[in-house]
Amino acid sequence: MRKFFNLPIVVLIVVATAAVSTSAQNALRQTSVASPQLAATTSAAVTASVPTTLPANQAIINSLSSLPEADTLVYINPQRILNELVPKLLPAKDVEGMRKGFEEVRKNAGIDPTKVDYIVLVVRFKKPTADLNFQAPEFMVVASGDFSADSLLVMARMASQGKLRDEKYGTKTLGLMTIDPIVKESEKNPFLKSFTEVGIVSLSPNTIAAGTPGYLRAAIDAGDGKERISTQALNSLVRDPNALISFAGTPWHSFAKSFGMLGTETTPRAARCESKIGDMYAALTMDATNFMIRGVTNADNPDTAKILANLYSGLLRYAASSIPDPSAQSLLKGLAITAEGDEVLLRADFPQQMVIDLIQQKMKPKAMEAAAEKPAAKPVVKRRRTRRRH
């Protein structure tokens, strides 16, 4: 048992078991497939099959609304990936082996990975310090679902063999650990100092978070109602709650914050430009026959949107013509970039079988590929030597 409970596995379990609350789970099961129309509003993106039930995206927004401010979010839907995508990509025996592995995790750790509803990775950029030094962004993974957060913390403490120390913050207790190899490397590279310490904390009975200590403290404050994530950011993230993976971010705002355009930690500066240009969303989803990519980036106004769409389309055509791989060319040519209003939209539909064949081909061991491509050796025919008679 001790061999199983080592800290990396505990952290992996935390990352792999992110889920919504029980109410969100019920809401997700009672909703129909969301519309992928990117230009539509959030209320029009999802239609609930039961009128008295919250739309799936609203349930997710509610469950994440107590997170702290964020500049980049990544949403992963393990339910669809494990139940719909993985069986298409892997042989049946590998899928069965995976499920047996999940059963072992459930028996040993009390967590069933197949019950995960979604995983969310959150990143926050920081203003420069008073001495004008760039600061690395903070990150956090939040997990919530049908498990005991306190039990996971106990497992983490056991696995750390005394390296996880407690720190009281507000009404919560953080478990902090110093990563010695990174501490050593940070002596050569000061940029790594922000990653020398990680932490874990129980935000609620069924919600646990792991990440940089400063961001975990911000999560505790957000739970108390301070500086919470904006509804706009969450609306962008879950335009389609049935996406396999989606991403939302504000790169221009992140740049402005990190490089002092909004001031420093000690000296704030009013923003001179409130433009949302560059704010983006992208998602990968699937239906019965296709994989679909949907993306959008804010261009501030229709003219800029058309200019950017033309620029991106030209770069895409150049990339497609420069790549020798026919399969990669086919994928790039399937991307459509258009301007609609003040947004630049990205759309692509790829037949599932084409993508699956491509992935399976790339997953083959190189030795097998070489053996398949190597022509069969011709059998050596031994000539019989005869003696000449004199």
Structure notes:
With 390 residues, this protein is of the alpha+beta class. Helix content is 40%, strand content 20%. The chain has a domain at 7-35 and 44-286. It has helices at 7-16, 22-29, 42-45, 56-64, 78-89, 92-109, 149-160, 180-186, 213-223, 231-237, 251-258, 302-322, 326-333, 352-363, 366-373, and strands at residues 72-76, 119-124, 138-144, 165-169, 172-178, 197-204, 207-211, 245-249, 280-286, 290-298, 336-340, 343-351. The chain has a twelve-stranded antiparallel β-sheet, sandwiched between helices. The radius of gyration is 26 Å and the shape is globular. The chain starts with 6 loop residues before the first helix and ends in a 17-residue tail after the last helix.
Question: What is the gyration radius calculated from CA atoms?
Answer: 26 Å
How many beta strands in the DSSP annotation?
Answer: 12
**Shape, per Cα inertia axes:** globular
Helix content: 25-40%
Q: Write the element-wise H/E pattern from the N-terminal end onward.
A: HHHHEHHEEHEEHEEHHEHEEHHEEHH
Q: What is the end-to-end distance? A: 85 Å
Q: What can be said about the biggest beta sheet? A: 12 strands, antiparallel
SSE class: alpha+beta
Which regions contain 5 or more consecutive residues with pLDDT less than 50? 1-53
Strand order of the largest sheet: 4-5-6-7-3-2-1-8-9-10-12-11
SS field, number of helical segments: 15
Strand content: 15-25%
Round the mean pLDDT to the nearest integer and report it.
78
